[in-house]
Design brief:
By secondary structure, the chain is mostly helical. Helices cover 67% and strands 5% of the residues. It has two domains: 265 residues, no CATH class; 111 residues. It is built from 21 helices and five strands. The model has no long low-confidence stretch (mean pLDDT 86).
Length: 499
């Protein structure tokens, strides 16, 4: 029986990989460019994150990207293929957690759903965001928590500490995981084992703190990074607060319409998962208390973390996908067992209707997925990202600049396209690779002055303009005075060379 389960799981993992192959050679978006450039600089130039390169998030994804660049090299395929392989590990973790909490059949159903939903373009379109990667340590954290709740006493302490360690690892990818991963684990420990909550919380906290201690030892003690440059400093928190309290239409106008389009598409794709994970959650609440309750907290608080982020980007809703797949997998297997045990003709009408609804909604999602896979690559890219043409041009611009500069030359990109830095393999002229025009309301006057001073000092050989200057007239005057237009890429990429 075990070999059959293993064979089915292997087939599911293979399908998960195959479904992502059509996206391997699509242009890399700006998030790939931003994270990739920082990873490249850390790997090749030995620049120190935070001290030499501005970043508001914890460093987990940069370390992943350093591994990609070292093992796979710099190419479109490198990043996307690595994600497809990495995602197989998440699929296996989803299976293991579903099997531990419910049954091997529920685990396989959950893994199959996750393999499908991790390939839905409208939700996982970029494959470049942090959420795509931190769902693996999050799932493993709950897996060890489940072993701690249902295992032998001798292994409980170790498993809970490992759960905390993986929760802390998740936090090292992105700070909102404190809400989506650590909070539901803590609530579960408080509710499920109140008699031992002091010990359990202490163990979980000890494990959780280890990555954070390593972070501070590395950046504060070893790398001598000023405190104010770290993502937890008062300065960074003030910027974050200003961003989160600024309406999206003011903070980043370019994302609004593409997000609306994605959410409209997501609704049709994800309706199956919403319906059946909700049914699974209700069934667990009405049943006697069990370790499965941790899944409900995981889903609810993951949605809460996405809502608190206020940006409502589609990929911010990736973290609840694994637990929703597990809940839906549990419901499907329970319904199937009910019908098989009673006989298809004698099973309950509710179970039969539930199974029929599951098949209809699942087939609807698969239809949309197959339709997307059959769509020509260039149309698929434009339909979901809306900016694939620009990303391809940024790659062309970056490679052009690489060919006409030396490694000692600086480059500056004014606009929302840090991918130019990655493809040019040249050093950005400034500490922060996103210029003030990307979020005019969050940049302080001091930061704008510092960036302008860096430009004057480093004298970038090429100045690439992909956005207007708005109120930042000093940058426009610098361009007019010191640079001459060398190339233009339609519709709005201008490459200027220093006079």
């Amino acid at each position: 029986m075990f070999m059959l389960e293993l064979s089915i799981l292997a087939a599911i993992c293979a399908a998960s990989y195959v479904l992502k192959i059509p996206y391997f050679n699509l242009p890399l978006d700006r998030d790939f460019g931003a994270h990739g450039y920082i990873a490249y600089s850390m790997l090749k130039r030995k620049q120190v994150l935070y001290r030499d390169l501005y970043e508001s998030k914890t460093p987990g994804l940069k370390l992943i990207y350093m591994l990609i660049l070292r093992w796979f090299g710099l190419s479109r395929k490198s990043f996307r293929q690595f994600f497809a392989l990495y995602n197989i590990l998440t699929t296996i973790a989803v299976y293991a957690l579903g099997a531990r909490l419910f049954s091997p059949a529920a685990g396989l159903a959950a893994a199959l759903l996750y393999a499908l939903y991790s390939s839905v373009p409208c939700l996982w379109w970029h494959f470049s965001n942090t959420e795509s990667y931190y769902v693996l340590p999050a799932t493993l954290s709950f897996l060890f928590l489940a072993y701690g709740a249902t295992g032998l006493v001798t292994t409980t302490f170790i498993c809970i500490m490992l759960s905390g360690l993986l929760g802390g690892t998740t936090f090292m990818f992105k700070q909102p995981s404190l809400i989506s991963t650590a909070a539901p684990a803590v609530f579960y420990l408080l509710l499920y084992a109140p008699h031992a909550m002091v010990v359990d919380l202490g163990l979980y906290g000890a494990g959780f703190s280890l990555p954070i201690i390593a972070f501070y030892v590395n950046f504060i003690v070893i790398k001598k990074t000023p405190w104010k440059k770290l993502p937890f400093s008062l300065e960074s928190l003030n910027i974050l607060h200003k961003y989160l309290t600024t309406p999206l239409f003011k903070a980043n106008r370019t994302t609004i319409e593409s997000n609306r389009r994605r959410f409209r598409t997501i609704f049709y794709d994800i309706i199956f998962l919403v319906v059946f994970s909700t049914a699974g959650g209700i069934a667990l609440v009405l049943s006697p208390p069990s370790p499965g309750l941790m899944i409900i907290g995981w889903v609810i608080l993951s949605f809460l973390a996405a809502i608190i982020s206020r940006t409502y980007l589609a990929y911010h809703f990736i973290p609840p996908i694994p637990p929703m797949c597990i809940l839906a997998g549990m419901v499907i297997t329970d319904v199937g067992k009910n019908l098989l045990s009673a006989g298809l003709l004698h099973g309950s009408v509710v179970a039969a209707l539930a199974l029929a609804a599951a098949l209809v909604l699942l087939l609807m999602m698969i239809y949309h997925l197959v339709k997307d896979l059959r769509m020509p690559r260039e149309l698929l890219g434009m339909f979901y990202s809306g900016e694939d043409h620009i990303y391809a041009l940024c790659e062309e611009v970056g490679k052009y600049i690489k060919g006409v500069t030396t490694e000692q030359d600086y480059v500056y990109s004014w606009g929302h396209q840090p991918d130019i830095y990655l493809w040019s393999e040249r050093k950005a002229a400034v500490y922060c690779i996103y210029p003030p025009i990307t979020n005019p309301t969050t940049f302080t006057r001091e930061q704008i002055t510092d960036e302008f001073a860096q430009l004057l000092s480093n004298k970038p050989k090429y100045f690439v303009m992909t956005s207007d200057f708005g109120k930042f007239k000093e940058f426009e005057q610098l361009l007019v005075t010191n640079y001459v237009l060398e190339k233009k890429y339609e519709p709005y990429i201008y490459v200027f060379k220093a006079k």
